[in-house]
Design brief:
7 strands, globular, alpha+beta, seven-stranded mixed β-sheet
Length: 527
């Protein structure tokens, strides 16, 4: 009986196992997959800082370097000296939005002008969008200025004029503020202990911990934020985050990094990896490399490199050195566009020329900015067809009669956006009537000085510069033509005055000249 029971028990267990095996596997949810990726990424200590003593040392080394080497920037000075928490948070917010995708050197002047004109969030909220666009003109990524304006109005109308004070509220309440910007504002102006990961910090952290996988992947992104939160100094979170950014901007640069000047070089796995590679290559050249040890795994490599989500998938390139980290996916080539543009000029009442400008839609590229009348060019069209299209567009705007013969081809202007390679095909037309009025609301006439101060893009200023250069060339050609004509007349008169009649037998009276008289006459004729 006991044997029978045992056999039945085994049979049931085998049957259950078969049923379990036959059950279809459930698909893992995206959340589960993400959690597993993050867990796998965090499993390798090679890409982290497992020793707390290393973290303390790195903080000290980096902050000491920052205190000595940091650049004096207006937003840093304001963040350190402004006692009003609301003004300080507003000022840091403005600087962080301006610094998105824009170099420090470009931002400084814009920032100083902005803070001088709108020193508080209430001042910005009271401004018009046209004034904001005008101030932002030339800084690029124009939606940033619009979002700052929208955010200021929201703070005043919905938050009683008080800037958000927590990371969560910064993210939720301010348009255009993402994870990095909220962390930067929170740590610098409010003292929140949080890491901040921007492009510079991504590069520094990837090199510090030899993270070579796609830096935009979820696993790498979460790993980098985890590292930033681990390393940030709890006593000086704002300074530490700025020190990381400063290091990436000035020392740990994308190309030509200055590793010998790096204050945290001793913690850098990629630098150590370069030294090991160079040492091995040197031994190979000298014939001292041990083939037995070459088969052993490198102590400076991740032990889970086959399955690790942070390790590079591409082979190491000796020529790149530390620039093997980070690896980014190839950028998509910019979209190519050609746009017909017409510079329409009329005489102003005060004698100054006036230019016709139209306003772009409130959404999309260069939203709300002013530009010369333009049409997107589709396919290849002859110059005559281009003039015909522009003529129809100007007639629509002005409601006046024009002919295609009035339009003159000026040239082409290339302007590169982040995702668009734009070529403006420029024509011009000069109107004689200063009373020509616009028939649409989003069009206006501006003098040259007013145009320079208006909310226009850099592309518009390039077009204007092209027209100016053409005018200068035409003026110079006219001057040169007049000068050549005048010089020609003077030379002709001079030649007529200097020209002497040749000696003939009649003039000499059949008298033979002496040798000295002959040479004297020849000399006078040659002068």
């Amino acid at each position: 009986m006991s044997r029978l029971r045992s056999a039945m028990h085994k049979g049931k267990r085998a049957g259950l196992e078969m049923v379990e095996t036959a059950k279809p596997k459930r698909k893992k949810s995206k959340t589960t997959v993400k959690e597993e990726e993050t867990a796998n990424a965090a499993s390798s200590t090679y890409h982290s800082f497992p020793d707390p003593a290393d973290v303390v040392q790195l903080r000290s080394q980096l902050l000491n370097w920052y205190d000595k080497e940091k650049r004096e920037l207006p937003w840093r000075t304001l963040a350190m000296t402004e006692p009003d928490l609301n003004i300080r948070t507003y000022a840091v917010w403005v600087s962080e939005i301006m610094l998105q995708q824009t170099q420090v050197a470009t931002v400084k002047d814009y920032y100083n002008k902005w803070i001088k004109r709108w020193p508080t969030v209430q001042d910005l909220a009271a401004a018009t969008l046209e004034e904001v666009n005008q101030m932002w003109a030339g800084l690029g990524y124009y939606s940033r200025g619009k979002r700052l304006h929208e955010g200021a109005q929201k703070v005043v109308s919905e938050l009683n004029g008080q800037m958000p004070r927590t990371l969560d509220s910064l993210l939720k309440q301010l348009p255009g503020v993402g994870r990095y910007t909220a962390a930067a504002i929170g740590s610098i102006s409010l003292g929140h202990v949080t890491g901040a990961v921007d492009g510079n910090v991504i590069r520094v952290l990837c090199r510090l911990r030899a993270i070579g996988a796609n830096s935009t992947s979820l696993a790498v992104t979460e790993a980098l934020w985890g590292l930033a939160d681990t390393l940030v100094d709890p006593g000086r979170p704002g300074d530490f985050n700025q020190a990381m950014m400063e290091l990436g901007a000035r020392v740990c640069t994308p190309k030509g990094p200055l590793c010998n000047q790096c204050p945290i070089q001793s913690h850098c796995r990629s630098y150590c990896k370069v030294q090991v590679k160079q040492d091995k290559n040197s031994k190979k050249l000298l014939g001292k490399f041990d083939r037995k040890t070459s088969a052993l795994p490198d102590i400076e490599d991740c032990m889970n490199s086959g399955t690790c989500l942070l390790c590079p998938s591409e082979p190491w390139d000796d020529e790149l050195g530390v620039q093997n980290f980070p690896r980014k996916p190839a950028k998509k080539p910019p979209r190519v566009e050609r746009t017909l543009t017409c510079v329409v000029i009329r005489p102003g009442e005060d004698g100054d020329d006036e230019y016709l400008l139209t306003q772009r839609p409130n959404k999309g590229l260069l939203a709300g900015l002013w530009e010369f009348p333009s049409l997107l060019l589709e396919g290849e069209n002859s110059e005559m067809k281009q003039k015909r299209a522009l003529c129809a567009e100007i007639i629509r705007i002005l409601g006046t009669h024009l002919t295609e013969s009035l339009f003159q081809y000026v040239g082409e202007v290339v302007h590169i956006f982040s995702h668009i390679h734009q070529t403006y095909v420029v024509h011009s037309v000069c109107l004689k009537d200063h009373d020509t009025q616009t028939q649409t609301e989003n069009a206006q006439w501006l003098t040259r000085s007013a145009l320079q101060e208006a909310a226009v893009s850099t592309g518009v200023k390039k077009i204007l510069k092209l027209c100016d250069s053409l005018d200068s060339q035409q003026e110079q050609t006219c001057k040169d033509g007049k000068r050549q004509k005048h010089t020609g007349l003077k030379n002709e008169k001079r030649l007529q005055t200097l020209k002497k009649p040749k000696l003939s037998a009649a003039n000499s009276g059949s008298r033979q000249l002496s040798l000295s008289s002959f040479f004297k006459t020849v000399k006078e004729e040659s002068c």
